[in-house]
Amino acid sequence: MVRFAPVLVILLLLGLPRLVDMAFLNAMVLVLIAALYAMGYNLLWGQAGLISFGHATYFAFGASCTILMMQAIEKGSSFPTPLLPLAGGVAGFLLGLVAGWFATIRTGVYFAMITVAITELVRAIVQRWDSLFGGEAGIAAGRPAWGPFGLQKLVDVYYFTLVWVVLGVAFLWFLQRSPLGLVIRGVREQEERVSFLGYDTHALKTLVFAISAGISGVAGGLLAFTNESTNVTLYEGAYSSTVLVNTVIGGAGVFLGPAVGAALTTLFGYYVANMTVYWLLYMGLLFVVIVLYAPRGLSGLAVEAMQTLRAGKRLAFPLILRRGIGAVLLAAGTILLVEIIGAIVAPVYWATAKSTGVAWPAVTVFGLAWTPAAPLTMATIAGLFGLGSLLLRGAAGPARRNAAALIGRLTGRAGRAP
Questions:
Q1: Are 305 and 415 in contact (CB under 8 A)?
Q2: Hey, where are the domains in the chain?
Q3: Residues 274-285 pLDDT 10s
Q4: Distance of alpha carbon 302 from alpha carbon 295, whole angstroms
Q5: Residues 6+ apart with CB under 8 A from 152
Q6: Which residue stretches of 228-316 are H helix?
Q7: CATH ID of 5-307, from 1.10.357, 1.10.3470, 3.40.190, 1.10.760
């Protein structure tokens, strides 16, 4: 059944436009783009063991070059529309080739800092080069038609994106299973031994950096094709941190793990952002919880469960259920506390109190009205935290070990001389 899972997922994605509304379909386009971006990033981290803090540069540069190519088509160029994301991929690859050569001279934290410096350099150039990249306003171009395909409808954009994402994931799958993929993992585990075998490890790391940047450029090209515009904000650090968060939440050690993380965080932001202004805080808390209790990511938890079942062992369902309920209670208490505090620190809350004459106006959370200073409200928050912590008792030790293990993985090579 597991072998046919990718086929079933593709079939589901092919039939999705008939099952969902346009709003969800638009969200799924963003999910697919974020998934490919995370998969490309994980080639660098999960396969080569190199942590980049500036990968948005190649994602954004691919988007910019795709828009420039779309503008060229509007002016009469005969470049085929289906290959537009490839223009972003080539741009990301070439930029990654240059940047990767410099960055991979060092390892660990030094490598990460170089990627940040390159990001800031490219961002400054793009922001100043108004005539080409449009500066703060950015650049825009319409999606060009291709033969009988107008590519103006959202459904057309969805299938266009789906085809490119499937091709990109298939490429990464075969690369991982190829001799080059084995050598790349060898560099991650024992770089000195790979060097003794006669391989140029610097050239290998530069190549994998460039390929990762190229895949990110394809994802950026798909975003540009979807939005028909791009600007300098794509080069900012938020887009680099987002792909890192997606990879950690999904699981860098599982092939499709980053795609799972990208889907979760993208849909989370798409829907929860309409419910609360503090959705980024909740996203950060989710990231912390994953780091503490599941450093291998959500996909890693699923793989561990499958391995346990295949070994003929039983899962500790009572423990899982107990901790799951504890986590839900803690989450409920956190949301209630954050929403109430967020409401009472806002000037509009006290303006309402003054106009209505009510000392503590009620705050609606979970569909219920909560009076901030009421004993029932305080007792409910304390009860949720207390009972949740009691059910999660015994998880603190593994959480500390998991956090230390992930931090060690992030900075495992930092101790070496630059």
A1: no
A2: 5-307, 317-416
A3: 888 888 889 888
A4: 13
A5: 143, 145
A6: 237-250, 257-272, 279-293, 297-310
A7: 1.10.3470
